[in-house]
C-alpha cells in the first residue's frame, strides 16, 4: 500500500492551492495511493506531538519509512519526520531555519484559511529550534525544489543544506513555487519509483 503525507506551511492549510493540485493529480493518475493532509496546528509548539500522534494513528507504512511532500514550514517538518522514521521527502521551497525567520512574526496572527486567531511566542521559536536537523543523514532521501524568486525564504539556505540531495533550482518564481503542477509526475516518480 502506497501512502503519502502532505504537510502545508505556516499560515496555510490542506485547502492550499498546491495541496489541491496534489489531491487532483493523485486522484487522476494514482488513485490507489492513500493521501493524508493533516491540518497542522498554527502554534509551532504543538506541531511535533500532533504529527507524531497523527502518523501513529493513520500512516500504516510509517514503520517502513514515510513518503512526504512538504511545502515551506512543511518542508522543515518533513525533514524532521524522515530523519526520525526514514523514508523519502519532496520539499518545496522548504524553510531551513524557521526559528530565525519567525522571530519577526512574534505576536498575534490570523490563519487566512481557518480564520483561527493565535499568538506566536518565544516558546514556539525555542520549540522549533529543538526540531532542527542541521544536516541530513541520507541526502538521496530528498528531492528539493527551489525557486530563486522566493520572496519569503532565502533559497540559498536550502541549496546549501540539501546540496547532496536531488536539487531542482529554477530561476525566478516565488514562494508558492510557480508551475508546481508541472513537476507532479517527477514527484510521484521519486516517492514511488517503479518496482
Explain what the structure shows.
By secondary structure, the protein is an alpha/beta fold. The chain has one domain (3-191): Alpha/Beta hydrolase fold, catalytic domain (Rossmann fold), CATH 3.40.50. Helices cover 34% and strands 20% of the residues. It contains seven helices and eight strands. The protein has helices spanning 17-29, 47-58, 73-85, 98-101, 122-130, 155-161, 184-191, and strands spanning 3-7, 34-36, 66-71, 87-92, 107-110, 117-120, 142-147, 166-170. The strands form two sheets. A six-stranded parallel beta sheet has the order 2-1-3-4-7-8, sandwiched between helices. The chain has a two-stranded antiparallel ribbon with strand order 5-6. β3 (66-71), α3 and β4 form a beta-alpha-beta unit. It is globular. The mean pLDDT is 95. It comes from Alteromonas ponticola. It holds the Pfam family UPF0227. This is Esterase YqiA.
- Which residues form runs of ≥5 with pLDDT under 50? none
Helix and strand sequence: EHEHEHEHEEHEHEH
Which CATH top level class fits? Alpha Beta
Which architecture does the CATH hierarchy give at level 2? 3-Layer(aba) Sandwich
Main sheet specs: 6 strands, parallel
CATH H-level superfamily: Alpha/Beta hydrolase fold, catalytic domain
Q: Radius of gyration over alpha carbons? A: 16 Å
Strand content: 15-25%
Order of strands across the widest beta sheet? 2-1-3-4-7-8
Number of domains: 1
Amino acid at each position: 500500500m502506497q501512502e503519502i503525507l502532505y504537510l502545508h506551511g505556516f499560515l496555510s492549510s490542506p485547502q492550499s492551492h498546491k495541496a489541491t493540485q496534489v489531491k487532483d493529480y493523485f486522484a487522476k493518475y494514482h488513485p490507489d495511493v492513500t493521501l493524508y493532509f493533516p491540518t497542522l496546528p498554527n502554534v509551532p509548539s504543538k506541531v511535533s506531538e500532533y504529527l507524531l500522534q497523527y502518523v501513529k494513528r493513520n500512516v500504516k507504512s510509517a514503520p517502513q519509512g514515510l513518503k512526504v511532500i512538504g511545502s515551506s514550514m512543511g518542508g522543515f517538518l518533513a525533514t524532521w519526520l524522515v530523519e526520525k522514521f526514514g523514508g523519502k521527502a519532496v520539499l518545496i521551497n522548504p524553510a531551513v531555519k524557521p526559528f530565525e525567520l519567525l522571530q519577526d512574526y512574534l505576536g498575534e496572527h490570523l490563519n487566512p484559511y481557518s480564520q483561527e486567531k493565535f499568538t506566536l511566542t518565544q516558546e514556539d521559536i525555542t520549540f522549533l529550534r529543538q526540531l532542527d536537523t542541521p544536516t541530513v543523514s541520507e541526502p538521496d532521501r530528498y528531492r528539493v525544489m527551489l525557486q530563486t524568486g522566493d520572496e519569503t525564504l532565502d533559497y540559498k539556505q536550502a541549496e546549501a543544506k540539501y546540496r547532496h540531495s536531488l536539487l531542482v533550482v529554477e530561476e525566478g518564481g516565488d514562494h508558492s513555487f510557480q508551475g508546481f503542477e508541472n513537476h507532479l509526475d517527477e514527484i510521484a516518480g521519486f516517492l514511488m519509483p517503479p518496482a
